[in-house]
Amino acid sequence: GPSSRFRHAQGRVLHRDHHLTNLRGLSLTTPGECDGFCANHQRIALPLLSAGGQIAVLELSKPGRLPDAAVPTIQNGTAVADLTWDPFDPRRLAVAGEDARIRLWRIPEGGLQETLQEPEAVLQGHTEKIYSIRFHPMASDLLVSSSYDMTVRIWELSAGQEVLCLQGHTDQIFSMAWSPDGKKLATVSKDGRIRLYEPRRSSQPQQEGPGPEGGRGARLVWVCGGDYLLVSGFDSRSERRILLYRAQALPEGPLSVLGLDVAPSTLLPFYDEDTSVVFLTGKGDTRVFLYEVTPEPPYFLECNSFTSNEPHKGFVFLPKTACEVREVEFA
């Protein structure tokens, strides 16, 4: 069969001069819907285990061993469910808490020098714990959140209020993703359904189709220019698998299903639109799977996988502008 142009992609660990070490008291109990931590091209934010939902914010421009003493933190006031940086403002961090509120924090120029106690804004509207939050990819000041109350809400941050509430879910929402052009929003839910919304048109799903069978967790990401959806989930026997759907034909079910392995944690997918390569690993895994995704059969072309020495506790990618293009680095 055909082979991928990127089958010889190699994972490389950067030199120790670029590492941040001696990270203490990390929270390893963030929900499966959360990537574990978040990063932008300037800094990373890591949930800590201590009471009150503390978050460490570390500058990537200051690598090395962290002091044994406590570092300045954000005092979120409640346990962290998910957190994400604003793609249009590298100093704004959105944090979803278990108290059904979203807090927006502003990091001072040059990084945290002292403990932050007061958020810039607090968004209230959900009635149950929030699962995940995502910034809009194209428009600044737009944030979407999903919650145990089985609603998806869209927030206008400049006004500090909810502008839309999407309905139609009957069980826990595992994952949601904006389309690359920001016009559509896809969700995958514990009720075994994938739903596609056009928020500007309706608060009900535009279409829905069958998702992964297993109710243990799932993630989804848009691929191939926003025409297809890739979903990682489980089958009824707990095998991890990836499924490819045509976004305009969800009711027809998946075009292709590929079983990978048996493991407890949900695979976190990250898609590189320039090469059409998807990276997948789970918390507690040591292996990162790589596949090139194509819109024609066989749909998934296997590339070299990358194995690390220690299990992953979280997994995120930096913006493309961080790549060393002279080294042919693409993610």
From TrEMBL:
* Compartment(s) of residence: Cytoplasm
**SUPFAM superfamilies the UniProt entry points to:** WD40 repeat-like
BP term (GO), one:
actin cytoskeleton organization
**PROSITE patterns linked:** WD_REPEATS_1 (PS00678), WD_REPEATS_2 (PS50082), WD_REPEATS_REGION (PS50294)
Q: Which Pfam families does the UniProt entry name for this protein?
A: DUF1899, WD40
Which superkingdom does the taxonomy of this entry point to? Eukaryota
Q: Which GO terms describe its molecular function?
A: actin binding
Which SMART domains does this UniProt record tie to the protein?
A: DUF1899, DUF1900, WD40
Tell me where it mainly resides. cytoplasm
Give start-end of the signal peptide: none
Family annotation (InterPro entries): Coronin, DUF1899, WD40/YVTN_repeat-like_dom_sf, WD40_repeat_CS, WD40_repeat_dom_sf, WD40_rpt
Glycoprotein among the record's keywords?
Answer: no
What positions does the domain DUF1899 occupy? Answer: 1-64
A GO cellular component entry from the record: cytoplasm
WD repeat ranges are 123-165, 166-207
**Region span, Disordered:** 196-215
The record's keywords, sorted A to Z, are: Actin-binding, Cytoplasm, Repeat, WD repeat
Protein purpose: F-actin regulator involved in anterograde Golgi to endosome transport: upon ubiquitination via 'Lys-33'-linked ubiquitin chains by the BCR(KLHL20) E3 ubiquitin ligase complex, interacts with EPS15 and localizes to the trans-Golgi network, where it promotes actin polymerization, thereby facilitating post-Golgi trafficking. May play a role in the maintenance of the Golgi apparatus morphology.
- What family is reported? Belongs to the WD repeat coronin family.
The entry's protein name is: Coronin
Species of origin reads: Oxylabes madagascariensis
Lineage, broadest ranks = Eukaryota, Metazoa, Chordata, Craniata, Vertebrata
